[in-house]
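S., here's the first fold you wanted:
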Amino acid sequence: MIKDPDIWRRDLLRRARRLEARQSQLRWTHVSFTRTEQDIMLGFYSVRKIFEAGKMSLRARSLQVRLLLFGRGLSRMREEYAPILEFYYNLTKPQRHQRGLAFVCSQIVHSYVFGVAVGYDGGFHGVYFSSDRERGSRLYFVSATEIVRIFTRVGADPDVEFSPWAEENLHLHRVQVAFPPPPRRIPPSTYEASRRHEAK
C-alpha cells in the first residue's frame, strides 16, 4: 500500500521525460546505461505499486503494452554470464505481441534477463527482458517510445479516490501507515478527520 499516489505519479512523469530525452542521446557511458536501467526498473515498480494499491483508473489499468516476442534458441538456459541474448534466443524471428500492464510490470520487476538497448548511432531504443519464470522459453522487447507512453499515461492519471492513512506514535518511532480504501458503502465523512490532518 502507498500513502500518496500523487507523489509517485509525479516521479513517473520525471522518469518519462528523462527517458524521452535519452532517445536522442548520442554518447553513452557505463553511467548512462545504469541510470537508464534505474529509471526503467524503478518506474515499472512504481507503476505496479500504484496498480496494486487500486490508485489507477480503469482506463490506465487496461493498457495493453506493445512488445516484440522472441522464442528460445537451440541452447538450453543455464547459468551463463555472456553472451546471453544471442546464445539462448532466436533474435531473427520477432513476433508482434501484446500483454497487459500488470504482466509487463511483473516481468521487468522480477527480470532475470534485462538489457538496455541503444542504437549504434546513439539513442535509447528499448529494453530486452524476461523474468526468472519466463527466461527458459521466451524473451521480450519493449520500445523506448512504449515505455515513455506507459509512464506518461500512468503519471498523468487522475487520482481515483482518497488514500486513507493513519499516524501512530510508537515508543521509538513516529509512523505513517497507509492502508486500503474503505468499502464504498462507508460514507466518505468517516475519513474526514484523516483528510483534514493530511491537509495541514
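And the second, which I think is the more interesting of the pair:
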Amino acid sequence: MDSAIAEMRAWVKSNFSPLIDFALYDNESPNGYAWPDVELSEELHDEFHGTYPDELIERVASELEEANGPWGREDYGNDD
C-alpha cells in the first residue's frame, strides 16, 4: 500500500503543482487564486481507477489537498 501511495503522490507532483507555489492570490476567485484548480480525486481516478481501490485514491487526494491546498497546472492555457 505504501508503494501505491508513493506512486500516486509522485504522479500528482509530476503533473500538477500547488497553486500557492505559482498562482497569485485572488480573493474573488472560488479557490482563492487567480488560476484554475484541478480536482485531484478526479485526476487520480482517471489515472489509477482499476489499479488501486477508490478509497485509497480518495485518501491520497485528500491528504495532498489538506497539506498543500488546491493544485493546478502551471501550463494551463498553453496550447503549444
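Why I say that: The first helix runs from residue 2 to 15. Strands lie at 17-18, 71-72.

Talk tomorrow,
H.
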